[in-house]
Amino acid sequence: MAMMVSSPAAAQGLPSADDVWDQAPPSAPEQRAPQAEVAAEPEAVVAEEVVAEEAVGAPEEEPQEGAEVAEAEASADGDDTEAESVEAPVVRERISPVMNLEGAPGFHGIASAISPGALQFQVGFLGEASGGTNVIRLNDENRSLTGNVAVNGQFLEYFGFNFRMQARNNVNTYGRPQAMLSQGDMTAGLIGRYEVSPGVWLGGDLNFFLPSGFGGVGLSGSALSLRPRLLASFDIEEMAAQSSDAWVPVVAHLNVGYRFDQSENLVPEGVQLDRIERFAYGISAYDLVEFGVGAEVPLPYVTPFVGWKLGVPVNGRGGVCDEDRALRCVSDIGGGAFPQTFSLGAKAEPLENLGLHLGVDLGLTSSDAEGLGVTLPYNVIFGMSWNIDASGPKVIIEEREVETIVEVEPTLGYLVGQVVDAESGEPVGGAQIFYEGRELAGQISDGEGGAWRSYGFEPGEALELRVEHPHYEAALASYTVSEGEGTLEVQLTPLPREAWVRGQVTDAEGNALADALVRVSGQDGPVEVRTDEDGRFEAQVSAGDYTVAASAEGFLTAGQDVSLEPDGELQMVLSLSEAGEQLVEIDEERIRINERIYFETGAATILDRSFNVLNQVAAVLLENPQVERLQIEGHTDDVGNADFNMELSQARAEEVRNYLVERGIRSERLSAKGFGSELPLVPNTSNRNRSLNRRVEFKILGEEE
Questions:
Q1: What are phi and psi of 66, to 5 degrees?
Q2: I want to staple 142 with a disulfide (CB 3.0 to 4.6 A). Which of 135, 149, 174, 563 is the partner?
Q3: Could you give all domains of the chain from N- to C-terminal order, each with its CATH number?
């Protein structure tokens, strides 16, 4: 039974290669190769055939690749016309679309208005990396690393969506702190597009930008920004095909939009950002009129691209150009301060549906301006995406009854086993199961549930099993096979797991310190090693929590509380500063300091003059890992509102705790508590007494506290 079906391309509503490149006269009969797709079911045979009506009863001819034969009919006066052969250009397949940094089809900051088709989806990751000196301010060293997880979809032919979640880490030597992390920033958008003529697409999109909170986690609704944008794309190859045989593989894009930027609302009232914070958290005091142009060259295996993007700052927030600001205003600088980048890179599809992306944005902005983030000199962008075609081919199925002979296998028994950790009860994946006395290949337990299913055995057979894993002692187990499936649990006793600590000890200027003592204290007891002539050291201990402390004569102890993973390796550099006058002592109850810790008046900001004494407190904690719990207590005098004093003392205690954590002390060892003016050392009867009552104390807590 013959049935007429369409080719896979036609089934998806797409033009086939013959439709695009058919240059034969209208009167020429088509010759196409038969196409078939067969799917087998247990009780049905699926078959498809393509049959041309003119070919019924005629002998089958082989199709001519890359050309169609046109044969003209005899003329009215009886003269015969010779057949002509017209060659069509070779069809070059383009790679699948690749996402831009907002998750929409395109590249870098350029969006495409061309629809990828209905029920087309993409998921992917795009990373950004940059580094250098003199980036944000003179003599700085800046490194920036960003990760973008994105997804886009096209439910309908002309309507789609995009979503992007971003995490960004910026490290600058002048930052306070040096590393600033912005994670959880979200972008969501809708896009509509329409092909107004062959190869000419117009559309628009609306994107919402919701950043995470400044100096914390969680989204900030008050900083919600949005950007409507007009899109246009021109497939010059398709446009040229309408009037000539020329092959012009170029696709051009134009984007014009306006960003209503509310990111300035992230900044708490009264806080003035420095240029490093403004860049790290992506905060702008201006709206932007955005322009973007780009071009792609869709070759068979790779698509090079170039692009240019410009932002024109408008509608600056109040106070952005105050006279006491560090940078000049945009209006004073002019176009040299406008955010501007040039993009260069390529997209590729080494495997079907797997898209790769590599490119760089080169900054063209010549001057920094107050209220605008710095444009990086360069930003390398890389990533990959996966294309999902949910439309599926259309298949015509013909069912026929067939006679099937089924051989009945003898009844066998199977063992469904599981390997678990004897101590934790957790599944153990990757364990090898051997059948003693049988010439059978070993099996491996799966990584998630630690399970395996045995070969089939006759009921009543006795099995002797040996189970091995490199991190556990080998175990033996016995099992008698029964009909159907039986179960067996094999418990493995874990072997001790080792870990390595390696690193270098230097002075504050980076010079190696030889013969320095490095003590690794934890569950294995203190392990002490000395540095070599290059200041390097290494120690092997069991996995677990440790305090690593380095000390040398004339220097202040430095180190870090660490957690070592089984079979893991930790690399670290410990920089020791000169000891100076001893300001800290420890007894059974407290760590006592011989100098006050100074803060800004009415605030929790620690003054530089107190860094030395806090560094010595950190050194004492590193030298005494037996101090497992330390409470940092903040106190004020009785001047001012009691509630404010309580909040201030708590904030100051927490700021000291944060400083010690930055110096390498594990946060679980430290707690912070403010007492306000409730526990004075002396009566608040004079300025001297009040000065003594404004203090920070360090109390060693026992297990019961």
A1: 80, 5
A2: 135
A3: 106-389 (2.40.160.40), 413-492 (2.60.40.1120), 498-576 (2.60.40.1120), 584-700 (3.30.1330.60)
